[in-house]
């Protein structure tokens, strides 16, 4: 009996890697005004950021509905395979709850669901660890239990290059955005208990990257797990973050994910970040 891993498009894992990784990615939809696009399918990441730059309003994303999950789950119920679904934080989208509703409607016992409490490269990190455990022969229950423990130690930080999109989303006043931009202020956000929080702010990407490196020194990434970086086609800023991280920990076992619509909507172009599993308390 096989184990099928399902995640959603906010993981930012490229769709063309589904077969290679043995996973299935379910797309959310992205709305620019009254126009709807299928995230990662009818709207690629470069297209998304081009439209974001040109849009006068922030786009919105729509969760996967329970009916889509029912159809997907029914397929695996018939095959007898175990299914593990891990999705964007339930505090950022209703996608996880839709999966729960679908499972309860079907009365399926071979479906295991996880609220990642994360998104983008943070969610991707957990998916890749699940793939590693599945390929090592772990059962669905063992994988779920392990992921629930990893979530408690997962860290996520992102640097925002421009304040424009925080202002557009009403999260920052126009005057604050203006003076912040003049001073080259770069906000740093984290994810705590499934919510995106303001963590700190520094003048310039280099200082912001060094602040994250300081946190990595304190939290000590566990070398048993890959470090995941994310960026919005920002090689210069990504290199600054990697250089800062490499000065305090080994990043040779790492992966880089291109950011998509969820983090990208508020972070905008030039956003970079990192997620890792901190060492367990001794």
Features:
282 residues, alpha/beta, six-stranded mixed sheet, four-stranded parallel sheet, 13 strands, globular
Structural class: alpha/beta
**Main β-sheet description:** 6 strands, mixed
Report the count of strand segments: 13
Which regions contain 5 or more consecutive residues with pLDDT less than 50?
A: 169-183
- What is the spatial order of strands in the main beta sheet? 10-9-8-13-11-12
Multimeric state of these chains? Answer: single chain
Please tell me what the overall shape is.
Answer: globular
Put simply, the count of helices is 11
Distance between the termini: 37 Å
Helix residue percentage: 40-55%
Strand content: 25-35%
The helix/strand series, from N terminus to C terminus, equals EHEEEHEHEHEHHEHHEEHEHEHE
Radius of gyration: 19 Å
Mean pLDDT: 89
Give a structural overview.
The structure is a single chain. The protein has 282 residues and is an alpha/beta fold. It is built from 11 helices and 13 strands. It has helices at residues 18-21, 45-54, 66-79, 95-106, 120-135, 140-153, 164-168, 174-182, 205-219, 235-246, 261-267; strands spanning 3-8, 23-26, 29-32, 35-38, 60-62, 82-87, 111-115, 154-159, 185-192, 195-203, 227-231, 254-258, 272-277. Strands 10-9-8-13-11-12 form a 6-stranded mixed sheet, sandwiched between helices. Strands 2-1-6-7 form a 4-stranded parallel sheet, sandwiched between helices. Helix 1 links the parallel strand 1 and strand 2 (23-26). Helix 9 runs parallel beside helix 10. It is globular.
């Amino acid at each position: 009996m096989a184990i099928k891993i399902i995640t959603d498009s906010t993981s930012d894992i490229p769709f063309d890697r589904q077969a290679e990784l043995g996973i299935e990615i379910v797309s959310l939809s992205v709305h620019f005004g009254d126009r709807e696009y299928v995230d990662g399918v009818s709207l690629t990441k470069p297209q998304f950021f081009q439209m974001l730059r040109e849009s006068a309003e922030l786009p919105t994303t729509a969760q996967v509905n329970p009916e889509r999950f029912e159809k997907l789950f029914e397929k695996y119920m018939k095959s007898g395979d175990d299914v593990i679904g891990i999705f964007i934080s339930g505090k950022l989208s209703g996608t996880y709850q839709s999966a729960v509703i679908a499972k309860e409607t079907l009365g399926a016992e071979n479906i295991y669901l996880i609220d990642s409490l994360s998104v983008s490269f943070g969610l991707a990190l957990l998916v890749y660890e699940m793939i590693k455990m599945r390929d090592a022969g772990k059962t669905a229950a063992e994988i779920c239990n392990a992921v629930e423990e990893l979530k408690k130690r997962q860290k996520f930080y992102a640097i925002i290059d421009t304040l424009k999109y925080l202002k557009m989303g009403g999260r920052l006043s126009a005057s604050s955005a203006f003076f912040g931009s003049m001073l080259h202020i770069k906000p740093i956000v984290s994810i705590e208990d499934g919510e995106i929080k303001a963590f700190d702010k520094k003048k310039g990407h280099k200082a912001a990257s060094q602040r994250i490196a300081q946190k990595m020194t304190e939290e000590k990434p566990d070398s048993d797990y890959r470090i995941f970086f994310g960026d919005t086609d920002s090689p210069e800023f990504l290199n600054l973050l990697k250089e800062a991280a490499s000065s305090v920990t080994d990043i040779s076992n790492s992966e880089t994910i291109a950011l998509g619509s969820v983090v990208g909507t508020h972070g905008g172009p030039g956003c970079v970040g990192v997620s890792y599993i901190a060492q367990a308390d001794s």
